[in-house]
Amino acid sequence: MLRGLWRTKSVDALIHESEVKGHRLKRVLGPLDVTMVGIGAIIGAGIFAMVGEAAVGASSGHPAGPALIVSFLLTAVACGFTALCYAELSAMVPVSGSAYTYSYATMGELVAWIIGWDLIIEYAIGNVAVAISWAGYFNDFVKTAFGLDIPVWLRIDYRTFVQKGLDLAGVPHLLGVPVIFNLPALCIVLALTVLLVVGVKESAAFNNVMVGVKLLVLALFVGVGFYYFHPEYWKPFAPGGWKGIQVGAATVFFAYIGFDAVSTVAEETKNPRRDMPIGIIGSLAICTLVYILVTVALTGMIPVMELRSKIAEPLVAGLEYNRASPWIIAVIALGSVIAHTAVLLVFQLGQPRIFFAMSRDGLLPPYFAKVHPRFKTPHVTTIWTGVVVGILSALCNIDEMANLCNIGTLFAFILVCAGVIILRFQDPLRPRPFRVPGGIIMPVLGIGFCLFLMGGLNYVTWLRFGVWLLLGLAIYFLYGAKRSALRARTQADRIPAHGAGDELV
């Protein structure tokens, strides 16, 4: 039993299973679609909110200042190590499941389950936080553009309502209980769920439009920022010294989360061996350029410490400081709404495909591996993900959801980098459509950087992560380990359980 926990599934077996009738997804995405999926996932709340915190260093006391440009470059290099590893594995194993599937092929079933369970934190739980944030930006936009203000009890959770000391007098009650929930967050999640059930091609087309709009909005901001640029605002360039740059890099790392979501659509890509590396590396490179241009514009149009007054909306703060036209401010607010929507769409697309892959392997009930007969999408997991994320978005506090996302993402990155190293020794002769340059040096650097960032997380985050993993292990041993499709095949063929270095085809 224990030896069986380290069963691995060969790359050939994974590819073969993806072609089984009834579990086959439609290959409709090209290189542009895949790249836009990556950009849609990466450019979101990070560039519209986190640059202010990193530049000012409000919570850390170590401001990066204009040297935040260097922070973005350092983080891009670090994320690049992991992106290269994702590119190699997704081109080799062009099936749904992302890091879960890669771990199954390299480190065995138990590790695959752990990473699949962990990815729920990055995609589903992370998306709850994005949906809550989306609701706030949406209200800001309709208020600025149309003078409409959604009642606070319809755009906030109960706990936050109480923490802010808001008055319950005007809140409706049902059976004596105040009706307080985040309606916009619930609505946007459910609307995107319907779109994702209809088809991945339609979803990708909608994502392409949103990505194009938010890139135009950021280009407008950069243009305005360069117009108001004052070189004297760059003195001192690094007010927090190297420590400020380092803390800034750790902060903006999470503005890059999302490029790994590209790997979840590998099974729906026309030519994954070519398109996946293009999408993963291309989206990361484009977003890095955008981030640097926005940072240059922002830090040149407003003294960094002036951002303290509006740290959550730094781009709007820069425009207001220079008394820019109200319509420009409204357009930037709209851009933030669109950016959040694109992130929601891509992450809502990714999570169901991980559940789908786990169900196809027998680790979750077969009910979750169903494909819609007409749309050829994993509709069951898409609907369930939408329902759960929507309910949590309506009722939960953003801080509770956001803190878990960071550690889950870094843990997934570590296992992907480790997977590349293991496959180099375990299956060295297999053709690799894309190969991480430099041997195992870059995967090792990727692991080291992720461990460094994980070490900076507080103990409460580690505790919650540990509890989440224990819950996942309980489900695996009570259900998945007994019903694993790989285990059933082993027993049927009367082959003893293989060790971690063996494969079953």
Short précis:
The protein has 505 residues and is an all-alpha fold. Helices cover 65% and strands 1% of the residues.
Low-confidence stretches: 497-505
Tally of alpha and pi helices: 18
How are the strands of the largest sheet arranged?
1-2
Major sheet description: 2 strands, antiparallel
Mean pLDDT: 83
Computed structural class: mainly alpha
| End-to-end Cα distance | 20 Å
Order of helices and strands: HHHHHHHEEHHHHHHHHHHH
- Provide the gyration radius in Å: 23 Å
Helix content: 55-70%
Instruction: Please report which band the strand proportion falls in: under 5%, 5-15%, 15-25%, 25-35%, 35-45% or over 45%.
Output: under 5%
Coarse shape: globular
Number of strands: 2
Keywords:
single chain, 505 residues, mainly alpha, two-stranded antiparallel sheet, 65% helix
Give a structural overview.
- The chain has 505 residues and is mainly α.
- 65% of the residues lie in helices and 1% in strands.
- It contains 18 helices and two strands.
- It has a two-stranded antiparallel sheet with strand order 1-2.
- The two termini are 20 Å apart.
- The C terminus is likely disordered.
Indicate the topology.
Elements (H helix, E strand, L loop, with lengths): L10 H7 L13 H12 L2 H12 L11 H25 L6 H8 L2 H38 L11 H6 L9 E2 L2 E2 L4 H16 L1 H28 L13 H12 L19 H30 L12 H8 L4 H35 L18 H17 L2 H29 L14 H14 L4 H25 L1 H8 L13
Antiparallel strand pairs: 1-2
